[in-house]
């Protein structure tokens, strides 16, 4: 017998209202309506409790409604919410803190509100700084849904039926090693997909490359992690081709991968690093880290954002940084991530439907297939698992180039017992599949 019969009566009422009045273009979710959250747990409007493997969409890194975070936001809301571009103590001190913790070449911080705004600003500034107009991105990549970000997307779903995208954007294969676009394996490929960039430049560009943009791991495409050394080699390629390097850490930053920033794993020095999601841990906040030498060519008034850098967002981000320091969340991400990955990889060995479990820290993907030999994507099996998990008290969701990957991304405050309990639920559900 499942623990919950979903949707519960109150959830059912709201879901019907949602179908009637909401625009209905948001992604499919489990059948309950969220009421409140605490730490790594959520409760629905019927009082059912869930362990959260989503953190929103990798947002609530310090956990839901952390009391210190809440108090800092409440305090700031009562003092000042928006003086637009006037500097505030919260904004300038946050910029200083961000410069101090990001790679040493990144000595300028521009505060924004959303991840799309940050990636868009990075590409725009790269074009303005270099005087060149072409941007290279990767198959499967996701950088947001605004104009330039959509043009940089490497997945049809992001641009489906929206007509022509901006010119000057070309894509190259990413290191999706489980499904290598060249049918090679990492031990013998010599980063063939990366070398293919030269072909892309020669065949699809005018040679006026402003920048290359990539996520350190591809989130929306299904938590695809390139092999060790791939990002460093890409950075070298950018240097050799005089292209700026944009490392989109909107999703990866703030501890997700077991390091504060994914760039740290290979000591990378991107020219632009868009940051979002976890920085505000629920309060819309983003920033673009870049270099003063790049910013020096911009004139006053060339960039702005109505709510970017507002003191509430900045107070939230300060509180997030304090919590990271006090509670060692980066270490917890690495430790809990290693435990959960081990458990899920063991499960993959027992199940004919889990083709791959991959990840770093507390960001992992479980890729569902109909057959391990053919690797045929199996989104319908995955949805049976996701729906059954909800009835057992585990909140999870789907991503993936083929829509067949469960995201495993709990808040970074998750403890050992909760992590174990959540893996037990997933194991029960997967092993019960017919
Ligand atoms: C890597 C990456 N870049 C950019 C974005 C866009 O962020 P936002 O939805 O805050 O605009 C996302 C969102 O999922 C993302 O994962």
Layout of helices and strands, plus pairs?
Elements: H1 9-21, E1 34-38, E2 41-44, E3 49-52, H2 55-58, H3 67-77, H4 89-101, E4 108-112, H5 115-130, E5 134-138, H6 147-151, H7 156-159, E6 169-172, H8 192-204, E7 209-214, H9 230-240, E8 244-247, E9 273-275, E10 286-290, H10 292-295, H11 311-327, H12 329-350, E11 354-360, E12 363-368, H13 379-392, E13 394-395, E14 397-399, E15 405-408, H14 416-431
Parallel strand pairs: 3-13, 5-6, 5-7, 7-8
Antiparallel strand pairs: 1-2, 2-3, 4-10, 9-10, 11-12, 12-15, 14-15
Helix pairs in contact: 3-11, 4-11, 12-14, 13-14
Give a brief rundown of this model.
With 434 residues, the protein is of the alpha/beta class. Helix content is 38%, strand content 15%.
Q: Could you characterize what this model shows?
A:
It is a single chain. The protein has 2 domains: 9-65 and 328-431, Alpha-Beta Complex (Aspartate Aminotransferase, domain 1), CATH 3.90.1150.10; 69-327, 3-Layer(aba) Sandwich (Aspartate Aminotransferase, domain 2). It has 14 helices and 15 strands. The protein has helices at 9-21, 55-58, 67-77, 89-101, 115-130, 147-151, 156-159, 192-204, 230-240, 292-295, 311-327, 329-350, 379-392, 416-431; strands at residues 34-38, 41-44, 49-52, 108-112, 134-138, 169-172, 209-214, 244-247, 273-275, 286-290, 354-360, 363-368, 394-395, 397-399, 405-408. α4 (89-101) packs across α11 (311-327), α12 packs parallel to α14 (416-431) and α13 (379-392) packs across α14. The radius of gyration is 21 Å and the shape is globular. The model has no long low-confidence stretch (mean pLDDT 97). Bound molecules: pyridoxal-5'-phosphate. Pyridoxal-5'-phosphate (PLP) binds next to α5.
């Amino acid at each position: 017998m499942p623990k919950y019969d979903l949707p519960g009566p109150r959830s059912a009422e709201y879901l019907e209202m949602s179908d009637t009045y909401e625009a209905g273009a948001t992604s499919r979710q489990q059948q309950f309506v969220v009421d409140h959250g605490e730490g790594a747990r959520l409760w629905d409007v019927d009082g059912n409790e869930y362990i959260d493997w989503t953190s929103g969409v990798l947002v609530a890194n310090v956990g839901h409604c952390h009391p210190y975070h809440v108090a800092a936001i409440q305090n700031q809301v009562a003092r000042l919410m928006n003086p637009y571009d006037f500097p505030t103590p919260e904004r300038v001190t946050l910029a200083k803190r961000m410069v101090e913790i990001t790679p040493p070449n990144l000595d300028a911080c521009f505060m924004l509100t959303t991840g799309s705004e940050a990636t868009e600003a990075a590409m725009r500034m790269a074009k303005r700084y270099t005087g060149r107009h072409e941007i290279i991105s990767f198959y499967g990549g996701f950088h947001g849904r605004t104009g330039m970000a959509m043009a940089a997307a490497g997945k049809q779903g992001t641009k489906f039926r929206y007509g022509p995208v901006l010119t000057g954007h070309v894509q190259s294969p990413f290191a999706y090693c489980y499904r290598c676009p060249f049918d090679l394996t990492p031990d013998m490929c010599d980063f063939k997909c990366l070398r293919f960039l030269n072909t892309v430049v020669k065949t699809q560009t005018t040679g006026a490359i402003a920048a290359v943009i990539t996520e350190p791991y591809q989130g929306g495409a299904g938590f695809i992690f390139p092999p060790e050394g791939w990002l460093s080699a890409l950075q070298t390629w950018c240097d050799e081709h005089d292209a700026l390097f944009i490392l989109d850490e909107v999703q990866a930053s703030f501890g997700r991968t077991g390091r504060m920033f994914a760039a740290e794993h290979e000591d990378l020095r991107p020219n632009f690093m868009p940051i979002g999601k976890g920085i505000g841990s629920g309060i819309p906040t983003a920033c673009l880290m870049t270099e003063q030498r790049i910013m020096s060519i911009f004139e006053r008034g060339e960039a702005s954002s109505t709510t970017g850098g507002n003191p509430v967002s900045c107070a939230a981000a300060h509180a997030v940084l304090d919590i990271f320091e006090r509670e060692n969340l980066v270490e917890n991400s690495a430790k809990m991530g290693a435990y959960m990955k081990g458990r899920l990889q063991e499960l993959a060995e027992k199940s004919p439907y889990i083709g791959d479990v991959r990840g770093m820290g507390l960001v992992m993907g479980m890729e569902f297939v109909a057959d391990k030999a053919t690797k045929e994507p199996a989104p319908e099996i995955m949805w049976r698992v996701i729906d059954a998990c909800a009835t057992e008290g585990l909140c999870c969701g789907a991503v993936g180039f083929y829509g067949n990957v469960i995201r495993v991304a709990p808040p970074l405050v998750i403890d050992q017992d909760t992590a174990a309990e959540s893996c037990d639920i997933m194991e029960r559900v997967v092993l019960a599949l017919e």
